[in-house]
Structure formats: structure tokens, C-alpha cells
Known about the structure:
353 residues; Aminopeptidase; 27% strand; Alpha-Beta Plaits
Amino acid sequence: MPQHGQPAAVEEPATPSAWRVRVRMHDHPGTLARIAIRLADLECNILGLTVLPVPGGVLDEIVLRPATGLPRRLLVDAIREEGCECTAIIDADVHELVDSASSTLAAARRAVDDPARLAEVLKEVLAADVVTLVPVTEANPARTESGHRAVFELGADTALVARRQWAPFVQLELTRAESLVMLLTAAARNVAGPVVLDRPDGAAIVLRKGVPGDADAVSELHRRCSMATLFRRYHTGVRTVPRRWLHRLLMPPRGTSVLAVFGREVIGLAQLIPTAAGGAEISLLVEDDWQRQGIGTALLARLAVLAEAQGITELTADCLAGDDVMPRTAARAGLRTERGSEDGAKLRLFLPA
Length: 353
């Protein structure tokens, strides 16, 4: 409180917020200039302008700082008097005021670094109210809600659904968002590409995705493995792998396999199978003669990269009680582990935050 005899401090008026204003107009010379003059008459300061082509004219998105106390209705009326239509006025953040190209590229970088944030990034790029991840069977792309809803398929299984009440999406915005999704899909495919291990002995070992044509080589891998190695992988006394298993090992349902290949021989096999709960199950098999040479660690680290590209942060593996091979391999791959609380047969592996 002010001391006796001192004037009370005068409270400063709040700084006006920024507005994002969308104006639909005919693409005639001088139209935008007249709008700018009317905004100046209302003491509005234009901070940014984006022109979005639409059928029958253009949609100008103007970011401005309004005069203190300016009613939105007065702004709408002034725009109408110039023969244009104000289709939306929403609050904007001047701290994020950058050109659309730079904004989209920055958003793409964030999504590449953290694929789990794709919905959040797409929401920002589209200035959408909400973006949700749904099964592709529930996406219903034909349902546009007069332009206020858009669907972006991420693959055969999932899609992102964007909704925006304050204004319908225009084609330029949708094209920009589709390009972003295509870029991230291409980046994910590149993540899954072959990798050559950098080994001090110079051995050229390649980690790559398994394909049906590798069936014979994977069968030979199992034939060269000891009973102990096969038991650690399958928890049963299997000695040879039935032919019908080979395809599921190489092309697991909803998942992927990664092979460690030396010359023409497959010396290691790993699997990553996403689960309905949002995690993924993994498995590893490395030929006896190549164990303790970093092959299992490299395969597990590769699975972690593929999992992260899919937004997966937790893995599980079947691991016999007392068997510390997988925990030690995970530690070398930079993953934290935790035994299951029931019988210890399940090992949980956590990707770095």
C-alpha cells in the first residue's frame, strides 16, 4: 500500500494482444491497400501478412496488433465496408511470428527429432484446434465438415485427424501439411535403411531389414547356433526352424526384422513387433562364433532407433530368470532395464528420454 501522502501508483493498461485476421477478397489491384488504410485508421499495427490463394479470389491472413480496447466487431465492419469478408479473428502469439516456410521447416525438424510429437507439430503448422492419432479404419477422409476437418494417413495402420473451428482449412495449408507428413515418412524410411558397422577389425558387417529372400540364410544361422543359444532365444529345445516359421521371423506381423550380415551369411537376427499398448516386443539371436563382439549390442541399438522413429519409448523382451545376457546387452546399447514384477521372465527396456 502507498504511504500516507504519496499518490497511488497508476496501473498501466495491458499491452494489446496480437490478432490473426483472415480476410477473403477479390484479387483486384488496390484491394489490400484499402484494407491496410482502414486498419491504420483503427490504429492497428500490421505485423505480418500471408496470401493464401482460394477459388474466386485470395484469403489474406494478417497478423496485427490492435489498438487498446478495439472491439473485434468494429474491425469486422470496417473490412466489410471495403467489400471484403472477415472470416476469422483469433488471438496470435507475436513471439512465434515468423514466415510460413521457416515455421514449417522448424516444425519438421522437431518432428524428425521426436516422431512422437508429430500430432503436436501438425497442430502448430495448421493452427488447428486439435490433432488426434486414430486407426486408419476410423479416419474417414471423406468427412471434411465443410473444410474444418482433414485427414493425413501415416501408413497402412494409422492416420492423423485435424480439426479447426475458427476457419476452414484452405488447399495451400493442406498441401503444406501433406508435404510435412511425406517428409517425415521419407525420413522414417531412411532410418530403416542399411547401416555398416564401424569395426576395428575391418569386418564389413551390415545391419539391414530382413526380406523373404533371406529365408535360407536365416535357416543356416539357426543350424550353426548351439542348443544353448537357441534355448535362450526360444525358451524351448528347438534345433531346427520349420520352414513356415522363417517367413514370420523375417516379416513379423505389424513388425520388422533386422539382420546382421557378413558376406553372404546372416550372423544375427533381431525383431521389433509393436504392441497394442504402445510399446514393442523385441528378440535377439546371434551366432555363437560372433557373440561377445558387439553384434547383439549393435542390433539392439538399431531396434531402439527404429522404435524411436515410431514414437515407441518402451520395449519388452522374454528373458529367463537368472539370464543376464539381455540386460548386459541393453546396458551397452544405452538402454535402462527393469525386471517384470511377476516372475522376472519379462524384461522392460527404456529408451533414453
